[in-house]
Fold this sequence. Notes:
Largest sheet: 4 strands, mixed
Structural class: alpha/beta
Strand order of the largest sheet: 3-6-5-7
Mean pLDDT: 92
Amino acid sequence: MWRKSAESLGKRAEILVWIDEDxxxxxxxxxxxxxxxxxxxxxxxxxxxxxxxxxxxxCEQASGDWFLLWNDDAVMETDDWCEKIERIDSKIxxxxxxxxxxxxxxxxxxxISRSMYKAMGHxxxxxxxxxxxxxxxxxxxxxxxxxxxxxxxxxxxxxxxxKGQTQSVYSVSSPAYHNEEMKTKRDLDALKIYKHIxxxxxx
Length: 203
């Protein structure tokens, strides 16, 4: 499935892939033959509870101006999606919502600008990475809808160990995401972005 997902993104995108070092199909990943734009990183397994560790690491390796949070159980259905994103100024902290542009509380595949990433110093501090940047963007009103890009999430069509492990973590990670400590961390990230936009003229 991951090959179909990667291929759907096209060759203009830099695709960074974290592979658990105990992956039984390691050889297939290493010999993917998809091109140099697909970069493989073999790392210790962190599990879904520490998914943000994976995402933050991959962001550190990225060279582009936009960071797309993507899953290997998704397929991009718009060929020129990169061109549509590149028309937007990445120097301004913002989060793009193309998946459900009419609903700012359902941004499954958020794209954040490099300037937002640099302001925070990471992508997320919790494993619910999509919610992290979505909620901060809503708070700061920097959540931008983008129509004309379609992606299909086929998670419901797949039954595998990864899906089972992910769902088993929700009962722990969802309450933790909403606790006071995490709320404070999101507020601090929002403040960093605000200062990046307006300087120290914060009230």
